[in-house]
Amino acid sequence: MWNMLLSFSGLVALIQLLFLPFFPESPPYLLLQKGDKSGCLKAMKELWGEGNYHTEFDDMMKEKSVTKTTKIMNVLEVLKDRSVYPQLSTMLLLLLSLQLCGLSATANLQESIIPYVSLGVSICELISIIFCSSIIDHFGRRILLWGGYLLMALILVLLETSLLLSDQFLWMRYCSVILIFLFIIAYGIGP
């Protein structure tokens, strides 16, 4: 029943993809990243209804003034900073737990190849983390979420097709592996 399980995940991703454009941008993103005060207040009203949000707005303005003096670090600088090692190790444990999710087994591969697929999954996770951390400030979360869900839905449709055809064409199993890698990269960049 792997096919049904993967199809369900694709359906959920498609529903999220359809509704995401109707949600407003995040107020902190609008204020802190874009510098759009009126857009921030408008998004607060859309998300939380009518009310007085001056306290929350003032808190975000304080955060903005603090972040102006904060240096934005690239990936290599973060890896060299020992103060973030606890957070990095927690994130690494979460990413390594994806190895136990069974994605490698869905491609219906020979057992001798599965460790290499698991290694490929880890490399894809690393690529997506580095790539996402480099582009998130430029594009914003909304575009990355929307694009990630769109790519995930498309990849799941292709993966479902390749799994259905894998018994007829043995090379489709390797296409499934590539699609699994692409799915993980899309998930890491978006959601």
From TrEMBL:
<dbReference type="GO" id="GO:0055056">
    <property type="term" value="F:D-glucose transmembrane transporter activity"/>
</dbReference>
<protein>
    <submittedName>
        <fullName>GTR9 protein</fullName>
    </submittedName>
</protein>
<feature type="transmembrane region" description="Helical">
    <location>
        <begin position="171"/>
        <end position="190"/>
    </location>
</feature>
<feature type="transmembrane region" description="Helical">
    <location>
        <begin position="113"/>
        <end position="136"/>
    </location>
</feature>
<keyword id="KW-0812">Transmembrane</keyword>
<dbReference type="GO" id="GO:0046323">
    <property type="term" value="P:D-glucose import"/>
</dbReference>
<dbReference type="GO" id="GO:0070837">
    <property type="term" value="P:dehydroascorbic acid transport"/>
</dbReference>
<keyword id="KW-1133">Transmembrane helix</keyword>
<keyword id="KW-0472">Membrane</keyword>
<dbReference type="InterPro" id="IPR036259">
    <property type="entry name" value="MFS_trans_sf"/>
</dbReference>
<feature type="domain" description="Major facilitator superfamily (MFS) profile">
    <location>
        <begin position="1"/>
        <end position="191"/>
    </location>
</feature>
<feature type="transmembrane region" description="Helical">
    <location>
        <begin position="6"/>
        <end position="24"/>
    </location>
</feature>
<dbReference type="Pfam" id="PF00083">
    <property type="entry name" value="Sugar_tr"/>
</dbReference>
<dbReference type="InterPro" id="IPR045263">
    <property type="entry name" value="GLUT"/>
</dbReference>
<dbReference type="GO" id="GO:0005886">
    <property type="term" value="C:plasma membrane"/>
</dbReference>
<dbReference type="InterPro" id="IPR020846">
    <property type="entry name" value="MFS_dom"/>
</dbReference>
<feature type="transmembrane region" description="Helical">
    <location>
        <begin position="143"/>
        <end position="165"/>
    </location>
</feature>
<dbReference type="InterPro" id="IPR005828">
    <property type="entry name" value="MFS_sugar_transport-like"/>
</dbReference>
